[in-house]
Amino acid sequence: MVGDRSDFFVSHAGADRPWAEWVAWQLTEAGYTVELDVWDWATGQNFMMLISDALDRCDRVVALFSAAYFDRSRYTREEWTTAALHVPGSGDNHLVPVRVEEVSAEDMPAVLRPLLYRDLFGVDEERARQILLEAVAGPQRPDGKPVFPGHASLRGMSRLGASEPRLPGPMPRIWNIPARNPAFTGRDGLLVAVRERLLAKEKAIVQAFRGMGGVGKTQLAAEYAHRFARTYDLAWWINSEQAGLIGDQFAALGMALGCIPANAGIQQVRTAVLAELRERGRWLLVFDNATNPSDVTPWLPGGDGHVLITSREQDWTQIAFPVEVDVLARPESVAILQARMTWVSDADADRLAAELGDLPLAIAQAAGLMTVTGMEAAEYLGLLRTRAGQLLNHSTPESYPRSLAAATGLIADQLADEDPAAAELASLCAFLAPEPIPKELFTGAARVLGGQLPAPAADPLTWGLTVASLAQHSLARIDRRGLQLHRLTQAILRDRLTPEQAVATRARVETILAAGNPGNPFNPATWPMWARLMPHVLAADLGATGSRALRWMAYYACEYLLARGDTRPAYDLARELRHDWRERLGDDHEQTLAAAGSFAGALRQMGRYAEARKVDEGILARYRRVLGADHPGTLSSATSLALDLRELGEMQAARELDRDILDRRRRVLGQDHLDTLAAAVHLAVDLRELGEVQAARELDEDSLDRMRQFLGADHPNTLVAASNLANELRLLEELQAARELDQDTVDRRRRVLGEDHPDTLCSANNLALDLHELGDMQAARKLNQDTLDRRRRILGEDHPRTQISVSNLAVTLRALRKIDDDS
Known about the structure:
By secondary structure, this protein is of the alpha/beta class. The chain has 36 helices and 13 strands. Strands 6-8-9-10-7-11 form a 6-stranded parallel beta sheet, sandwiched between helices. A hairpin with a 2-residue loop joins β12 (477-479) and β13 (482-484). α29 packs antiparallel against α30 (674-689). The two termini are 60 Å apart.
């Protein structure tokens, strides 16, 4: 590209990069200026902006037509549609279409079908070059004898000393790559990244595809070889699972190269073939399913060729650039399922992909089995949840050596022989969630692990090696968050257990989970660990568990969700626990009552105060009858009912109940107990609402001082007291003091709870009131609008607090209009 404009922009699909580079080179050699994304755009730039700028900057667009080019999901659509705007009736030939593979007119967009195009494929390189240059030059006749061009144009690429791109045409003469998977979908970004690193000719000329079994490492390597085959003179596939057979496969390569005799020994083969490859360029070696770097290292030639390795082994950093191959993106999984099963709806395909964890082999097996059996999605999903091991042992694609169930079972058996403790750990992890598992869950519970795990869990080094063994066998992934098993790996491991083993293993997991209870869910210091454990708590059978400790942990989980403002998940969990525990434990059981209390709390946060009151009244009556009036559970239940009464406007009843609670807690727990201080804060709200503002202020000032001393300034309970005191200061017309306290409270709540937490929004609402009263109407309007927007999104349009924000914003807007009218 020269100056601010270019003659051509080359528009292509990612799969056609070899063609794009060849075309760009030929045009540059011919003296044109060319912009090509893979040559001229840097990592980290805005891709869509670059496309837009390139299309504005170029005089014409060379479009490389192929099946991939017209895929609706590709950015090429933006390129050809913009270029095509210049076509109808203008005759300016802005779009120059050339086909690089057979693609029928009906597969092209209708607007492009009338256009004339030229074909670059199916001819030799010189003819392809002539066709390209004729296409961009257009029809023309010389008006005189052409001038001898002399030396090549200074803008030509060859003067830079680079190797000319090979015409993407004939396949390499020496080639044994397995057949391409016709169902291969997606992975374009990964393939392009691999190609760019290989072309950089730095340390990444050897790249190792690593990942769990069934993730498609072999398919990815084969796809790369086929997609870029025409850029190589030689491509050779080496099955590397058995190290002793690598030499024989290199001997076959040596025979094809003609550099060894038929009876050559392995050492002679290695010396001759590696020397031959070092003398050559444009070769590709693929070591498939390698088990150990030491098996491959002696066979790496060096030089200018490229090497790909596929392996479940994680540690290749000494000899290769590691490429993590993950599961498919959800749209890719859905596309594969619907391509094989056209009758499957978008919703069913998405559900299937989710339950299969977007694992390529599992997706292929599911599509195969459902196609041959006519099984509906709902039936398959039901079987997947109960008989995953059997289900995933059928319909193995020809491109995979074994089914997912067989491959996972083989690895599990190998692990059991080599590292029994790691195999035991894998079985336990199979009953947790398919999310990262914190190492502290096991190392912090060494005394209750049982089996062979207590000793490894007690020693950091031994435990690290045990966990690493799972990763080395591709049963788990490890990162700083912990270890993680794919959901299908978990299902297959569970399915391999006998019913008795499954019951015993689940019980062990429940004991481990309960031992890892982070504690007080109202203390922000426990929240990070709660967040990491919540997926695993929810994966347990909480409704049916026989573990009393795990049931308390489940109740704490509900309270954690409520404390964090995650109201809907708290509602769902508490409702389920209340239902299941009533069936198993009875209505009067203290854990049933605790779950019911969380359910009522969720109703209250959702603004369903009358429903919450009905539930809380029933709980309080049972607590008083079963545990007595002074029991902590009884007093907590009474506090919840008082909150309901206050929200429903029954202030006198709320005051009487809160006064009784405070008196009992002072008598039983003492003046400085945290529960006593919380009760004082609740009573102060009642006093304020009943007009006893000064009494409320005195009570809140005392409570706030004590809470700051015992809990700290950032504790959620301390911030409740601070918010209440600011309300009283505002009512007593100490507006500047109210504003300062509300500003401090909203800042702390934003930092501790987050900007969208219901309590944070209450503080923001109160601060907006202060600003309004102080006459700062523009600031009040802005804060009211932000609070309203957030409440609508978090609480819903009909929530009482959302309606309060609507009213407050309206008052401020009226005041602003009055100011405008007066001025």
